[in-house]
Amino acid sequence: MMRSIYMYLTLAAIGMTVSAQQPPRGGSGRSFSLAGLSQPNANVADSLLTDSTAIKKDTIIAYNLTARLGEPYVVPMDTNRLNFANSTLTEGRSLSVGYLSNIGSPAQTRIFSERKEARDFIFADGYDYYIMTPENANFYDTKTPYTNVTYTSEGSDQKKEERLKAVMTVSFGKNINIGGDFDYIYSRGQYNSAGNKLLSYRLFGNYLSDKYEMRAYLSNYNFVNYENGGLTDDTYLTDPDAHQDGKLGLDTKSFPVRYTGAFNRVRGKQYFLSHRYNLGFYRATEEKDEENNPVEKFVPVSSIIHTMEYEDNRRHFTSTNQAAIDTCYKIPGYSEDDRIPGLTGNGNNGNRIYGLSAQLHDRPSAWNLKNTLAISLREGFQDWVKFGLSAFIAIEKRRFKMTELPPGMTYDDHLNIVTPPTTLDYPGYVIYDEFSTYIGGELSKRLGSLLTYNARGELCLVGSDLGEFRLTGNLQTRFSLLKKDAVIKAEGYIKNLRPAFFTRHNHSRYFWWNNNFRNEQQVYVGGTIDIEGTGTRLSAGVNSMQNHIYFGQSGVPEQHGGNLQVVNARIKQDLHFRAFGWENEAAFQYSSDENIIPLPRLSLYSNIYVTVKLAKVLSVQLGADAHYFSSYYAPYYEPATQQFQLQPDNSTKVRIGDYPLINGYVNFHLKQARFFVAAYNLGNQFLDPKHFSFAHYPLNPFVIKLGISVKFNN
Prior knowledge:
The protein is mostly beta strands. The protein has a single domain (2-713), classed as Beta Barrel (Maltoporin, Chain A), CATH 2.40.170.20. The chain is built from four helices and 38 strands. The strands form eight sheets. The protein has a 22-stranded antiparallel barrel. The longest helix is centred in the N-terminal third of the chain and has 19 residues, at 2-20. The chain starts with a helix and ends with a strand.
């Protein structure tokens, strides 16, 4: 194996020399590779698009980029005729997902294997479904202008939720595509103090030629969530008759909540650039030009790659109404006499600090600059070159800022507070700087259908993250099973991760901690069998974790020293017969310690519908779907940390779930337009109201939702 790797690296150097000696020739325009790798939970054909000039004039290709090296791979476009209404819901993001009733509110998938690594800036983790990253940001290859505008709305004026999304991209000649996308959510909310407003936008572009490829974007987001902390009494939902006081009914806006006058604002901006210079040669093809001369195609042999990513995040948490909070927060070491009048909290017992006024502000921030330089030998430049090989070095600089210690207080940077302050004053902020250097490599085979694979590893050699490493890999093969094409995929990873910065350090007016956590070790092994033509997909996997970090009952991060496992098994079966369709998916999960990692044992989704065509131009899909998860001690969302933690008090722990979220819908498709009418939480009209998403956070009640999406491709 080492001999083969050495041979490939030698060939890369030779390829650079040979291609540098090739005289320039008139090529066929853009000729780049889009590795058609499947994205999780997406049905994407595993085929490689090797020549973009073969794209039809009206064809639009969307693709994402792999981490570090920026390799492009095809992803689905948001243009499906079926299930349009379902795709606009937060529930459409995962088989099972919890969130705070409003679209755009912090969310967390209940499927453990779908959860991502924590950001250093952990306050943004709850917005994973709405934040653009290099791994989920779409780029486009199109020869005609493309625009898609989507608008959805639900609820009355005082409770309305609205969302407007738009994307536009245009091409300039053979090499350039530029565009922008926009996402605006404005929700007044069905419950008291639960509104939110999310705005994000991105400007992107690419320049793609034989020798040079460049993809770049700049993005910005500003998310505001009013925080109510959930219901103070769940029986306002589960037993409304007990609270009517002679009224005909209760408005959900009148349900008492834990907080009023509190909100979180999370802002971020990102600049991303990935470019490469390809070294190779031109090869004659069987195609002929207008003068009947052979058309020559550029064949890349090796590439020099540079990727730059800059990210800046800021958070502002404000509480203006302390009367809504139950008990006082305090620094360890304070006595009862040290409490500040008027400042109260939610009853948790953690490392919390007082503020000085009725209006309190937490303003942590962080920025991160990453630069990656790589050299790669490209797969397939000769028939006998069966895989690609890359090596890279990455340098990261990070800076974090948060509230400074009050004068007179000292502490060990890695342990607990040791000396209480003599005064309560906040002179400014403390800054932490971190610097790390990684080396890594990637071995991949993306061409062909019989066997494809990818293996990547990286190790921090110098700096703050010394010893951190990631080894990830996947393998796929195709064969015949029961006279149907079947695909088997295997994937896994081994990680040794330094804990996220803000789980190690956090100085705020409500919570204060400095932790000397050990690195987390994570191992995952899983596989999938996909039988094409039958709509059947089976998958299973095992997560094993050592030194797992979680937010405990006190609302502060804790580390479990032992070993934890989560086992999952999943089946998806779609049935279609003429106009009838029935889609089903089920997931089973087992957590070895539900007191640390609470998960529903069973999660289900079922969607049944009929499709018809009216007047040969209007397609109609009429159906209903249902989401279900078994009851469990779900996490509680803490606004002061923006984290999903264990429920605070054992004496008041509640189980949620065992309730089907039923939605009825009618989807329409007419030429370039899609539109729908949907009844959300239809089961609320005839089932006992138990529609909670997290502990004390209910889902929206029954509401009518409307939406339209128009595509322009000319």
